[in-house]
TrEMBL record:
Record's keyword annotation contains tRNA processing: no
Keyword Secreted included in the entry's annotation: no
Compartments (UniProt record): Membrane
Protein name stated in the entry: G protein coupled receptor
MF terms in GO: G protein-coupled receptor activity
Coiled coil ranges: none
PANTHER family: CNMAMIDE RECEPTOR-RELATED, FMRFAMIDE RECEPTOR-RELATED
Length: 489
């Protein structure tokens, strides 16, 4: 191909392909930066719980009146026998307390109950739950929103200025700006993806090990993981500060570092923020592929699959642990009462599983969307580096490579500005909190006793039979055994 034909194709590429790509990129990056920043701010406010108040009634297991009266006398008898204080709480919010000791006359429970209904509970019979049932991830969700916003204002803004004014802040200024902007671009995108990986890993621990998550992932271990990952990111990207230079092609087509003669003779030549040392360039390139692409991609795939299995297992457990009507067999009543109490404790273990479902449902689409948007540009970078397409002597080839690179950069930058939209589409709880943030009203969320442990959509009333099930097909004892087997598995 002679020089004339090559130059003609280059002009055609500039006119027909690259110009349309730049016009599209100008509008695309403008919309992405504007609405992406607003969306990240909204996500940050919703996650932090701004202008949101919740009212959640205490958790109580519904009991029949006969059961309540029998348990009142039983608790009173146990309290008097063990010399323990007994709390008597009337339903009209009046609190009475008294202590009974061995040998003292027992209070007349019949007269008391005739006047007002009391709930007598012995403190020794009250189960104590550990404080590790709540595992908030607000800090990492906040870090993810901040990292996405910073990444959105570092690299996409450069392309918007280039498409709008024809000025590249990385390659048309100085070698200092070349190194600084390239360092910030790679560092912010690495931090954004690794924050997502850490958040997904934390939710995986909470979903699979609810009672050990705070012990495994806290204190020095958590801080060491953050510091270690950030240290590796900074060390990897610091290589750019030492190897990058502003270079340009000279009259014979060879790349030369910008010097004093460039300002006098070659002001019209295109500058490149790159390095002449191919060895150091390839070392950094493959390190970047491993740290930014291969390892995070593998982690997100494995963790998202694991989170999906946690959600499915939780749904199966909720379906098996539904309440069924009492059996008519009188002999089975003590066993059913014991199993009912055991059931209330086992349902407590489902509380943490139900609480992480919403967060897991947010993370899975975010991780999948990141994989869809980042994998193509990684493959393109590997092919471009292997064939050195940007350094091709053909101007037409360089034009096509630049056009493809612009389109893939647009696709990759999308992941930093659409998290709010993903949250909104995939989470009903996020939509409710967004409504509370938008309108100056108090968000009051009444929770039924069983839905305190389970997801509200999966709640089944203790006095209702599930649809399509015959009460004679299984008793409460059988359902309790199924629930116990599911929890052990």
């Amino acid at each position: 191909m002679n020089l004339t034909e090559n130059y003609t194709k280059f002009l055609a590429c500039q006119r027909d392909i690259l110009e349309y790509v730049r016009k599209f990129g100008l509008g695309y990056f403008g919309v992405l930066i504007f609405f992406g920043t607003i969306g990240n701010i909204i996500s940050l406010l919703v996650i932090r719980g701004v202008r949101q108040t919740y009212h959640q009634p205490s958790c109580q297991i519904q009991k029949e009146p006969s059961e309540e009266r029998g348990q009142e006398f039983a608790a009173l008898h146990v309290g008097s026998r063990r010399n323990s204080p007994v709390r008597v709480t009337p339903e009209n919010s009046q609190v009475l307390s008294f202590e009974t000791t061995a040998g003292s006359p027992k209070p007349s429970g019949v007269g008391v109950i005739n006047q007002t209904r009391f709930s007598i509970v012995s403190p020794s019979a009250i189960p104590k739950r550990q404080p590790m049932r709540k595992h908030p991830s607000k800090s990492i969700f906040t870090a993810l929103a901040i990292a996405d916003t910073v990444a959105l204002w570092v690299n996409p803004i450069r392309y918007w200025i280039l498409f709008a004014f024809g000025f590249d802040i990385r390659q048309n200024n100085s070698v200092t700006m070349c190194r600084l902007h390239t360092f910030l671009t790679y560092a912010t995108r690495d931090i954004a993806i690794w924050v997502l990986c850490l958040l997904t890993f934390e939710r995986y621990l909470i979903g699979c090990f609810p009672h050990k998550a705070k012990i495994i992932w806290r204190g020095r271990r958590k801080v060491s993981a953050w510091v270690g990952i950030f240290s590796v990111i900074l060390a990897k990207n610091s290589i750019l500060i030492f190897i990058l230079q502003l270079i340009y092609p000279d009259d014979v087509g060879e790349l030369v570092i910008v010097g004093p003669s460039y300002a006098e003779l070659n002001t019209s030549r295109l500058l490149l923020c790159d390095t002449l040392d191919l060895t150091s360039r390839r070392v950094f390139f493959y390190l970047d592929i491993v740290i930014y692409s291969l390892v995070p991609t593998g982690l997100l795939l494995v963790l998202n699959i694991a989170l999906f299995r946690v959600i499915q297992r939780r749904n199966v457990m909720c379906r098996r642990c539904e309440f069924f009507p009492k059996s008519d067999n009188v002999g089975a009543a003590p066993m059913e009462d014991s199993m009912r109490n055991s059931m209330s404790m086992q349902l407590g273990s489902l509380k943490i599983i139900g609480s992480v479902v919403q967060a897991n449902q947010l993370l899975i689409p975010v991780g999948v969307f990141h994989l869809i948007t980042s994998v193509p540009i990684c493959i393109f970078s590997i092919v471009e580096d292997a064939m050195q397409l940007k350094r091709s002597p053909s101007a037409y080839a360089r034009c096509v490579v630049n056009a493809c690179g612009y389109l893939l950069v647009m696709l990759g930058a999308t992941t930093y500005g659409v998290n709010c939209l993903i949250y909104f589409l995939s989470s009903r709880q996020f939509r409710e909190r967004l409504y509370a943030l938008t309108y100056p009203t108090r968000l009051v969320k009444e929770v039924e006793p069983t839905s305190y442990f389970l997801d509200p959509r999966d709640t089944v009333s203790p006095h209702q039979n599930p649809k399509g099930r015959n009460p004679k097909e299984g008793t409460l004892v059988e359902s309790m055994e199924l629930c116990a087997d599911a929890l052990r598995s």
